[in-house]
Amino acid sequence: MSQINAPVATFDFHSMAQLKNQARTNEEAVARKVGEQFEAMFIDMMMSSVREANKPMKSDLFASSSTDTYEEMYHKELSLHMASQGSFGIADWIVEQVKTKQQQTKAITDYELHQTPSAPTPQNTMLKDHYE
Known about the structure:
With about 130 residues, the protein is mainly alpha-helical.
């Protein structure tokens, strides 16, 4: 039932819960999917702004609520397609941020596991007194 690549609605809370569960095992793939959804929302918001800005220039010949609905649906699908193609690179950026976070967390964990507590020496106490 692991369908990370299946298209899902951006505001589908059930799909969001599934992604959260899948993130425990495959964080990078889920980050890609979330990044694509975010990128699609971003592109859709841009297209919505363009539609709104073009309203004064729209001809009365094509002005109808059904045309507006069709344009909105078309732009939503177009934004999903553009996001899946990585047109803006937002999803790639989010994946890189997740990878960097994972590497930093691993480095910190490795450091903490391999760090041996050192006994206080006169040099350590002198430095400590100097910086306090």
